[in-house]
Amino acid sequence: MALINQEARKDFFISYSSFDRVWAEWIAHTLEKHQFSVTIQAWHFLPGSNFVLEMQRAAVECNRTIAVLSSNWLESVFAQPEWAAAFAMDPTGTGRKLIPVRVAICEPPGLLKSIIYCDLVGLNEADARKALVRAVQAAPSRPDYVSFPPGAALGSTTQDQTDMNTEYPGSGAPVQHGALSLLLVSAVGLIGLLETTRKTFEAQARIRDQLVASVEDRLNLISGERTAYESFFMAHFSELNLDEKRVFHTIRSFTIKILREYNHRMLTIIDGCSQLKLQIPSISRLEIHLRIWLAKFDGAFMATPGMCLLYVGVEEGVPFPSEAEREVWLFIHKHPEANDFVGSTPPENLDYYEESSTAAVDEQRAIAEYHNERETRESRVREIRARLNRINNRVEYVPFNQLPETLYALDRELGALFSTGVHPGMPLDQMIPPEVIQAVRVLLELRNNAWPQEFISSLVIAEAAMPVDGLTKPEFRWQNRDLLTELPVLAYYVKQFGIASDLPRIWEEARRKLSHWFAGE
After folding, report:
1. Contact, 156 vs 124, CB < 8 A?
2. Can you point out the beta strands (E) in 376-462?
3. Nearby residues of 332 by Cβ (< 8 Å), 6 or more positions away
4. Whether 219 contacts 237, CB under 8 Å
């Protein structure tokens, strides 16, 4: 590979999201005015060139990379290799190969947190220009003059009259960071996290939809039959090809590296400022949602390689309060001293939170469908349990020769209801005795081709539903829910053939506990 001509290398590559182009061009123009050379997509990438290769080459061939830091940049898929290339060349930061320049309220995740960024949020043009130039200098510079603190006039320096042809994208007035109350500081921090989380989720959803379409097309699945994306990916994880798995792991990395961290940081802010819940109505609901999301992340997501998405709300009944970002934004804009932190106008995509928007309508429809389905299931479980009690107490007469088949049919329906209704938040390990795994394994060893086909088929399905590490970790997990459908079948035939097994007792115990749960008791 040819060596890069050091004299031909440019000083900076500007990495930015297309939504922040005006900021990127202002930064590039400012640096050129101060005799630095730059590479920027808007000026130097020719039509028809390979966009990804051009970005990668620019990141490597420029001496340093400037990341235009905003929630737009953080959720951009293409921004990752750019800063990663610069970070890999200087992981300790001693060479200052990567210089983040924050232009909007946001909170950098993961490794980016370890790099000190140049903050332009709330500065007017003169102060922003000076802050940028200081940030890119080879060594930190000292100011020419430091005012005496007691009684010193607060405010910004006089507007620099240097000729600047590129319009400054930021505020014209300075903001005094230290003048904000804890409540406002917390709200400002929260709005940055909410916006970045939403944009990350939206980016993840776009990639998700593309992957689902690819899998459905390749496997000849009927589009729209899926009931939940979590279940869809878990059902087809083993069938993904290499390209699909790469996209799958990209989606999963968004959950692990950004959403988990940002949700945790939002909860930390809420815990640290009790006034937020008193001043902003949706914060209490946001807190509950975040706690359950993080619990599900730790308890189910990390232990399940087949999960790339983590949704909390529909099944658990605690949906994300989509009005939270609007309410926090409105609260901040009631306080002029904090306005410049979030801009003087509402975000363009604020209608995302309107009731008439597609996202809100879909969310409400999904919640309504889930609750209707749950109520129907609970009602049917109560009906079956009541009939079983009547039969067992001989209140309802069933001919003796029809009794086994009647009880078996009711048991089978209960098993199917249980299987379709379980979710990761259920304490199944407290309802299903761990002996179920060993009991099924014993039946597998005794399997006889003379058994009825239904018995053998049920055993085969049960074997496929068994946890791979069942011998070392015998707890019953929600991923093994298909076994619930087969337990009543196995228990029935064990009785029919007089096989010594704990399965009838295990099923009776599970039926009793699960019936109480699914009956809403």
Report:
1. yes
2. none
3. 184, 187, 188, 191, 338, 339, 341, 342
4. no
Q: 102 - beta bridge partners? A: 69, 119
277-307 per-residue burial string, b: 16 or more CB within 10 A, e: under 16: eebbebbebbbebbebbbebbeebbeebebb
**How far apart are the C-alpha atoms of 356 and 245, rounded to whole Å?**
35
Pairwise CA distance, residues 363 & 368, whole Å: 9
Taking only the tens place, the pLDDT of each residue in 58-96 is 666 788 888 888 877 766 644 554 455 554 555 445 556
Helix axes 79-89, 51-61, angle to 10 degrees: 20
The number of residues in the chain equals: 521
Alpha helices in 255-351 (DSSP H): 260-272, 275-279, 283-296, 324-332, 339-342
Helix (H) or strand (E) holding 298: none
Does the predicted TM-score (pTM) go above 0.85?
A: no
Pairing of strands 98-102, 64-69: parallel
* Alpha-carbon distances of 62 from 36, 85, 381, rounded to whole Å: 12, 11, 66
- Residue 497: exposure state from Cβ atoms within 10 A (0-12, 13-18, ≥19): middle
Cα–Cα distance, 430 to 484 (Å, whole number) = 14
Cα–Cα dist 439/466, whole Å: 11
Tokens standing for residue 286 = 């946001």
User: Which one-letter amino acid corresponds to residue 169?
Assistant: P
pLDDT digits (tens, 9 = 90+) for 113-156: 657 778 887 677 888 888 888 888 855 555 555 444 443 333 33
Q: Which residues are registered as beta bridge partners of 77? A: none
Element (H, E) at 172: none
HSE-CB for 91 with a 13 A CA cutoff? 2
